[in-house]
Amino acid sequence: MATASELAAHIRDIAGDAPVKLGLILGSGLGHLAGAVEGIAIPYSELPGFPHAGVSGHNPNLVIGTLEGVRVAVFGGRAHYYESGNSAVMRLPLEVLCELGADTVIATNAAGSLRPDMPTGSIMALTDHINFSGLNPLIGEPTDRRFVPMMDAYEPELRNKLLAAAKSEGVPMQQGIYAWYSGPSFETPAEIRAIRTLGADAVGMSTVPEVILARFLGLRAAAISTITNMAAGMSDEAISHEHTKAMAPLGAAKLEKVLRRFLRDL
Ligand code: HPA
Hints:
Elements: H1 4-15, E1 22-25, E2 38-43, E3 61-67, E4 70-75, H2 81-84, H3 91-99, E5 104-113, E6 123-131, H4 156-169, E7 174-180, H5 189-197, E8 202-204, H6 208-216, E9 220-230, H7 241-264
Parallel strand pairs: 1-4, 1-5, 5-9, 6-7, 7-8
Antiparallel strand pairs: 2-3, 3-4, 5-8, 6-9
The structure holds hypoxanthine.
């Protein structure tokens, strides 16, 4: 398997040497943002060791290029724990991101809302997470670097810049705590009541392992959820992957405005 530095060299051969500033991981139904980048799309299948992000609604390309004047690497699709049983599946892509020069990663996802005042179509900046899965992508990491502190894992300064960008754009953006549930089945209403009691505001099947890996690798991290449904038992709304993909564009339009403004103001 190619190492992260070999892959980064290969990517630089294709997409040019200029260092990348920031990585963006796109969640379900948000893949179109990759098309907004002026640059080069490299299919994951051409990057040995990159996951086969096989979930419909994802776009498994790494796009290197410029968005609002900032050199970015956009992961058009992520791999999830539930696809392979490997929670460290995004480690190599994030290592490559570091090798390309990035110091920051912003993860996006589709999520269910646990808050009646945060309906479908809302966007939410993560302030923290609850790892409801009990899994950890650093299990098996042999060095003491595995003991990663998770205080302010979602960096307040970065989040404040995203909130300021949302405000400038007139886009309401909530803040809240995201609970990671392994998936791929959705949660039961009893599980949703439980994680609500524990303090979660939104629930989803991604992002948490990536943020743990990002902090392990020394990347600054932020994450934004687009709310595609009320969580199980909270409304009569359908809960399905089809529904997630159908509803993601509501939040995606807001998210794109916020991210563009954030990048412009960097
Ligand atoms: N639960 C878990 N993941 C999700 C949901 C949900 O309700 N909606 C979108 N992704």
